Amino acid sequence: MIARIYTNLKRDVSDPQGLAVKNALETLSFKGINKVHVGKYFVIELDSMKKSEAEKLMKAICEKLLSNPVIEDYTFTIENGNVSKKK
Amino acid sequence: MKFGVVIFPGSNCDMDCVHVLRNVLGQKVHELWHKERDLKGCECIVLPGGFSYGDYLRTGAIARFSPIMDSVSNHVRKGKLVIGICNGFQILCEAGLLPGALIRNRSLRFICKPVYLKLENNSTPFTRISRKVLKIPIAHGEGNYYIHEDGMKRLKDNDQIVFRYCGEKGDISPEFNPNGALENIAGVINKKKNVLGMMPHPERCSEEILGSSDGRLIFESIIN
Predict the structure, then answer these.
(1) What is the CATH number of the domain that holds A42?
(2) Structural domain total, chain A
């Protein structure tokens, strides 16, 4: 079982990294870029469990450690399977 | 006064704090490893600067769960003093002992230079100082203070903004804001006024030979 978690700065928090990336894209002449948000992406391999349990666990993990609720929002997805097969 | 300087893996200003308190100001100092839980009767706890846990995840995010932080929280609940400098400030925010958060500098650069600070509240245990402007160095990549609107209102209502970045004469304007911090905020205190967090490093300017001894005024305020 795999959880994929994304954390991002809240919309009203300034995102200097996102701005720098946007400026770089404009410098490279890419058109149509309105805003860039730079966040973090975590992949967590889980023991097998019910999907509802996994969701509860991910919510707890996100709120306790992976995101700072003062500045960040989080989302996650949970899927069956492995990231890489053991040799 | 008995001080405890907490050492996290990755702290790098711990010995500067120990030196100033012990050798310059003649205080008793315990060096407290982050895995300890005993604060050894220290009256004031210092969370020093550095890069605890390599700044992994977010600055201060992992250090806040070090075993010693439970004891630091208890110490705070009893109304005793804690000062967090730079990474120490970041840790206090992550731990919820101070409001707000410190995000990446607006310029994305690590900034290391002396700055002027306007003392906005001189009635805290840390800032019984008659001067209005202090010159103290900063050295950080993530010192851009953020707090949501309601939080900012509470900070102002309760007189919790302690230092703002300013010019030599104390004038506060965007040109003197090194990192993009909201309203030039460089340091805040909790509502009970026993926990101070500040991005500038007073321990780096507590002896004349280092170019300024303004930092000493903060430590002397705590001691007296």
Answers:
(1) 3.30.1280.10
(2) 1
pLDDT class of A85 with cuts at 50, 70, 90? low
Please give the residue range of the domain that contains residue B193.
Answer: 2-223
Nearest residue of B to residue A71, measured between CA atoms = B101
**CB-side neighbour CA atoms (13 Å) of B220:** 12
Which tens digits make up the pLDDT trace of B144-155? 999 999 999 999
Calculate the average pLDDT of chain B: 97
The full 3-state SS of B94-145, as one line of letters, equals HCCCCCCEEECCCCCCCEEEEEEEEECCCCCCCCCCCCCEEEEEEEECCCEE
Contacts of B183 in chain A (CB under 8 A): none
Catalytic residue from among B42, B86, B166, B205: B86
What is the arithmetic mean of pLDDT over B207-220? 95
CA-wise closest residue to B71 among B40, B48, B27: B40
ipTM: 0.83
Of A20, A65, A71, the CB nearest to B101: A71
> Smallest Cβ distance to B146: which of A13, A17, A66?
A13
- A87 in a domain, yes or no? no
pLDDT tens-digit map of B40-89: 999 999 999 999 999 999 999 999 999 999 999 999 999 999 999 999 99
Cα–Cα distance for residue pair B181/B198, rounded to 1 Å: 12
Does A20 contact B at CB distance below 8 Å?
yes
Q: Which residues contact B88 (CB under 8 A, 6 or more apart)?
A: B6, B46, B47, B48, B49, B197
The CATH number of the domain holding residue B22 is: 3.40.50.880
The pLDDT score that the predictor gives to residue A84 is 66
What's residue A87's pLDDT? 47
pLDDT at B211: 87
Sign of CA dihedral B110, B187, A72, B8: positive
Distance, in Å, from the CA atom of B217 to the CA atom of A67, rounded to the nearest integer, reads 36
